[in-house]
Amino acid sequence: MPENQVPDEQAAAGERDLGEAVDVIDLVDERDEEAGGEPVASGQGGVWEASSREGFGPLERTRRARVTPPSEHPWVVRTADTTIMPAKHRLRSSLPLLRMYSARQVQLRYRQSILGLAWTVVQPVAIMAIYGFIFSAFLEVDGGGLPYLSMAWTGLTIWMFVQAALQMGTVSLQNDSWLLGRVWFPREIIPLAPVVAGLIDLLAAAAILIVIVIVQGVGISIHAVSLVLPLLVLVVWGAAISVFCATVTIFLRDMATIVGLGLRLLFIATPVMYPEKAVPEHLRWINAVNPFGAVVTNTRASLLSHVWPNWELLGFHLVIGSAFLAGALWYLRSVERRMVDVA
Amino acid sequence: MSANDEVIVFDDVVKRYRLGVERSNIRAAIPWIPHDPGTNVPTVTAIDHLNLTIRQSESVGIIGNNGTGKSTLLKLIAGVVAPTSGEVRTRGRIASIIELGVGFHDDLTGRENLIFTGALMGMSAAEMKRREDDIIDFAGISRAIDTPVKRYSSGMLARLGFSIATHVDADVILVDEVLAVGDIDFQRYSLERLENLILDGVTTLIVSHNLAAVAHLCNRVMRLDRGRLVADDEPEKVVLDYGGRMAIVHAGLGKVPVRLRELKVRPREVNPSEPFDLEAVIEVERPMPRGRLRLVLRPTAELVAAHTQGNMPVEADLPQILDVPVPPDMLREEGTWTLRGHVDGYPMFPGPYTFSLELMEDPHNEVLDVAMAHLDVPGSIPAAAVAQLPVAWAIDPTFS
């Protein structure tokens, strides 16, 4: 049992011997002489040196522990390439964090801006005004039997989501790499957050869409119920591309540029500002193969043309998209342990 | 003690970092290519085949020189760094104060960051809301809490980060050299906070150069050297070995077992090169096998000032004229001893001098105790030197 108390005797000896102060010992002893042992700051270990004068010993462990026994938590095993964590556990820790991360994304985007959240509405309106003017006035694109504004706004609502999810998703891990080295959490949250945040913008644009559809006399029918399917395809594909491209971008920055170029191409190839009918017959397969093209076309079908969508095509894209998403998540998880070393 | 208590297990863990810039990371992006810098590129081994087991409610101090892998060890436990080979197993919620202000986003306010950081550590927003007041109180930043953290001082960030990490119901808490952060009050609060967490049974790992802190808080201390575990034992043993006796004294774990009672010089006034005697009383409470003694002769501050016509130097800057090793035999045996020394004469210039007998302990150079005595050499103070050299000169004609 080590002795906790520095005996008074020693302090007295200090006074006697160190009339002319010399060293470390003296610094400590001087403090001892100060009334009540009030600690005095001095450099780094201020409190520690001072406290030692007050009979600072090893911490006496008298109190009963209040933590849950470790056996109630699952083991998390980390090797060079994997974090082995029970899937249930990983999902449970991911979901609330994903919600918060997405909210933060929205919060940050409009921080220190005058219009703030109003941008979610102002932005698509402005883009619509620009593109709509070019396409309908200069290029003389018509609505293909539908009011042009309803037709184009439907496409734009979907496209804004695709663009935001892919553009921000691709650089998301790269942008937040500072966080990767500081705290561990399921990494898929980072590229998934822009997709979830994009849904908020999608919601705002969809609300305007409903107003336009009603004002333009297109009306809404029971077929609108089937919109759930294209929405699912949209989110699954957006998430899959975002997760995959974000992971690759960490290792190869080239990916961000490639995605930027790809988005431009995709904007032309997808009937966003023009009706599908404007595409020559022999090129329509492109639109069918393109999941976002299929989403746009079928959303218009059920929302504007009041017919049921092409179930087989959407189902096909949903299955492929889900497989892609699963693959992208697997890929992210199998290289996530390396990101810190590289990013 | 059973395997059920284990919360952290290292199984032959190696962490190597590659030196230099990589041209392309394409190999790292491919899952089936092993991610090891390999042997044909320059690497640095931060953790070298480390095995360890930490059980619940242990408080473990990690000490060692800079660059010996202490922080890497914590990062491996926190899961932010992957081992190059081997396996790290952990369980329970881990909160880390590896870098203060962890996960803070500049544009978010303190309050928003608080909720978000909690979420990163696995706490729900509702749970964090419930603790919000405690956290803000503890950090002492209630006025700034709704200001973006980019306007915070580094002290405020540190305090908020520490406060959050210690309020998140962690099973394991990792602390990396934060005990020296913040003002004296905050240091005291954070010490108390850590004490309380340890008493609550939270498994704690503390990396610190503050040996007194480590010795006080921890019931087990590990010392790393170049990525290897060179000591893993009770705090007193490891700290004494690494940091010397004063770290133990500062931590209140013990005191210096030898006291230098007094030192006398007879006569008090000695003419240059005249003989004099030294006498010291040494009390050995417990033997100090590695103790050593030395006798140092220094001019007093007044003498130095008179020589240099400058300001009075501080005590620590006084030059040593003599440094004489003293036989340490009496330190090896319990008892009170009188040490006597006789000097035939030393050619000093006039002035006041101080003899001090100093106690040290190998391999450290820290002075553990000191006894001093004055010596006056009468006469007027000369200008340039403090000692004469008795030389027998001879002048002979030389032909070449």
Can you walk me through this structure?
The complex is a heterodimer of chains A (343) and B (400). With 343 residues, chain A is mostly helical. Chain A has 2 domains: 45 residues, no CATH class; 258 residues, no CATH class. Helix content of chain A is 64%, strand content 2%. Chain A contains 13 helices and 2 strands. Chain A has a two-stranded antiparallel ribbon. The longest helix of chain A has 32 residues. The radius of gyration of chain A is 31 Å and the shape is elongated. By secondary structure, chain B is an alpha/beta fold. Chain B is built from 9 helices and 16 strands. Chain B has a 6-stranded mixed β-sheet, sandwiched between helices. A 4-stranded antiparallel β-sheet of chain B has the order 13-12-15-16. Chain B has a 3-stranded antiparallel β-sheet with strand order 2-1-4, covered by helices on one side. In chain B, helix 2 packs across helix 3, helix 2 crosses helix 4 and helix 6 packs antiparallel against helix 7. Chain B is elongated. At the A-B interface, helix 1, helix 2, helix 3, strand 1 and helix 4 of A face strand 1, helix 1, strand 4, helix 2 and helix 5 of B.
